[in-house]
Each structure stands twice: as C-alpha cells, then as structure tokens.
Design goal:
Number of helices: 3
Distance between the termini: 25 Å
Helix content: under 10%
Order of helices and strands: HEEEEEEEEEEEEEEEEEHH
Largest sheet: 7 strands, antiparallel
Radius of gyration: 20 Å
Number of strands: 17
Strand content: over 45%
Low-confidence stretches: none
Strand order of the largest sheet: 5-4-1-2-3-7-6
Shape: globular
Mean pLDDT: 87
C-alpha cells in the first residue's frame, strides 16, 4: 500500500453504514455514514453515525462488496458510544481487516500528509420497480494536518481535533484518517470547521443612501478526532479495553 491505495483494497475495509429493514432481501432505509475495519471483527465509526433510535424491524449494517458489483449487508452488533463520552463508536462485524491498519503510539505533527476514504454525498433515488436505491460514491481525499486544537462542538464541548487542509463533506464522518506512507490511523473524520471571513464590511451607499450588507466568505476545513481519543476508544466490542490495548492483546 499506501501512497496511492488500491481502491478495491480500501473498499474491503472502509465501508458505508446504513439503517436497514431486517427482511429477505434486506431493504435499505437510509445512509448514515462511514466506518472502517480494524483488527478482527471490529468496526470503528463516529457515534453520530450510529446513534439514531431504530424501529423493531430495523438494524445497522455495513454494505460489503463480495463479488465485483454485487453487495451484501452485514449487520453490526454491540454498537456502543465510546465509554469516554466522545463522538466515536465501536461495533462488532463478521469481517476482518485486510489492510491491517494500526494505531500509532503518539500523535502527529503539523504538516503531516494524510489521506482518507469514505462515502460522502451518497446518492438516493427512487425507481418504480425497485423502490429506494442508493448509489455509493466512494471518494479518496488527501491533504495535510494544519493544526491540532480544541474545537468547540455544540454537543460534545471542547473536542481535541486535527484541522485538515482537505474537504470532509457530509457522509465522510467515521472514515479513518491515515498517515501517508504508512498504515497508521491517526484520527477519525467527524466534520468540518467553517470559518467566516469578512470580504466587505457593511456600509451606507453615499449616492443612494441604501445600506450595503456585510459580505462574508466561508472557508471550510476538515475536522478529525485526535489520535489520543482514538487510542482510548472503548466499548463492549473492545471488551472494555482501550482500542490500542485491545488490538495488542
């Protein structure tokens, strides 16, 4: 691997997460985000991707390509929010990692090159004969870490984060942030930091007397959970152990 990852290898370890109806065949209800395999039978994602309340006939599932162009839904079990209270989650899944991703012992510095892969902007369409269909748009993104800081999250408060020089559109949440040239997952994508800059201040037009509004430009940077947060992630699927310790046990 890993300077230019093979798409068909990434597809086996980085998976789209759906809410499905437990029918035969499985009926997909909604797309929720991205998750990734690490270790044997363990999937990591963001908690907000798997936190919705489900109806009795529904479940969370990852969609896996088992033959080129043919997919199956694999149910997630033991889904839990990180017991540390962060926006991360673990689940068990009947799949093992093929990329053999690891978690480093320490965080990474500003300017470190990183990449990610996930399923942002997944399309949904309705057809008369097949109901609702979802068209997966796996996307590879890369950039570098601009800084580490505490992002003031409206739900989770001060969240240790990496700010990234690359887009992280909706649906990419839960994707691994991987250090380029390695198999080290240094964080998990969870959102965007939208920063407003003033292009033109509000003023009064001297000729018309009309008020000219302030003009702002929005700059969007990606956000990922910090390495230490990922290392300490734990739940039933990790047998109560911090993730890094669980993977080494």
């Amino acid at each position: 691997m890993i300077g230019t990852p093979d798409r068909f290898i990434i597809d086996k370890d980085v998976l789209p997460i759906f809410i499905v109806k437990k029918t035969t065949p499985v009926e997909i209800v909604s797309f929720e985000g991205t998750g990734f395999l690490i270790g044997q039978g363990l999937l990591v994602s963001c908690w907000h991707c798997v936190a919705s309340s489900l109806l009795p006939d529904q479940a969370y599932a990852a969609v896996v390509e088992f033959v080129r162009g043919r997919y199956e839904a694999v149910y997630l079990s033991n889904i839990e929010q990180d017991s540390n209270g962060t926006d991360l989650a673990t689940a068990n899944i009947a799949r093992a990692s093929t990329l053999h991703l690891t978690i480093p012992d320490r965080d990474v510095a500003y300017g470190t090159n990183v990449w990610s892969f996930g399923y942002p902007l997944t399309d949904r369409k309705r057809s008369q004969d097949r109901g609702v269909q979802f068209l997966l748009n796996g996307r590879y993104v890369e950039g570098y870490i601009m800084r580490s800081f505490y992002y003031e999250h409206q739900t989770y408060g001060q969240t240790p984060s990496y700010e990234l020089d690359m887009p992280t559109p909706a649906g990419l949440s839960g994707a691994p942030l991987v250090k380029t040239g390695s198999k080290e997952v240094v964080g998990v994508i969870y959102g965007s930091n939208d920063v407003a800059t003033i292009e033109q201040e509000a003023s009064i037009n001297s000729e018309s007397g009309k008020r000219e509004p302030e003009i702002q430009r929005i700059i969007s940077f990606g956000l990922a959970h910090y390495t230490e947060t990922l290392k300490n992630l734990k739940g039933a699927a990790t047998k109560g152990l911090p993730l890094q310790q669980y993977l080494r046990s």
